[in-house]
Specification:
By secondary structure, the protein is an alpha+beta fold. Helices cover 37% and strands 15% of the residues. The strands form three sheets. The protein has a two-stranded antiparallel sheet with strand order 1-2. Strands 3-6 form a two-stranded parallel ribbon. Strands 4-5 form a two-stranded antiparallel sheet. A hairpin with a 5-residue loop joins strand 1 and strand 2. Helix 2 packs across helix 3.
Length: 147
């Protein structure tokens, strides 16, 4: 069973806390407050944090009358100099997402992202193992050091 944000249930304490936040902040202030809570150890970079927050909550999909469907997925490419917290953001977002997957290095090859064939050590049979994109289906796949 695939877990999605819709499948998560909130208890009464969380509902009360959400109401308190709504009463305390305007919409724009609440958006900034929530964005700043993503990787609070990273100073600044509010626009990147806002983009990541929007990716976490997702966009709105549209179904056209002719059967065409436009997905509401938000894709982000973080590109920058070494040491500017790109990896920290990726790890935090994959942790916050119910179906988040973080991969780097060897797992970032084209084949490693979709599937791989492994030999079972007990039965010596070949098995197909899902890659990062398969495991993050309906979630967020964070690929670090992508070549």
């Amino acid at each position: 069973q695939k877990m999605r944000f819709v499948d998560l249930s909130l208890d009464d304490a969380v509902h009360r806390e959400v109401e308190q936040l709504r009463n305390r902040y305007s919409d724009e202030d609440l958006f900034s407050y929530l964005a700043q809570s993503i990787s609070p150890e990273v100073y600044g970079m509010l626009s990147i944090k806002k983009a990541l927050l929007l990716q976490l909550v997702g966009g709105s999909g549209v179904s056209k009358g002719d059967g065409m469907r436009i997905r509401g997925d938000i894709n982000i490419a973080l590109i920058g100099d070494p040491g500017v917290a790109k990896s920290q953001f990726l790890k935090r977002v994959s942790f916050l997402s119910p179906r988040g997957v973080y991969t780097t290095g060897k797992g970032s090859s084209g084949v490693g992202l979709t599937a791989s064939i492994k030999r079972d050590p007990v039965t010596n049979e070949l098995t197909l193992e899902g890659g990062a994109l398969v495991l993050a289906d309906t979630g967020i796949c964070c690929i670090d050091e992508f070549d």
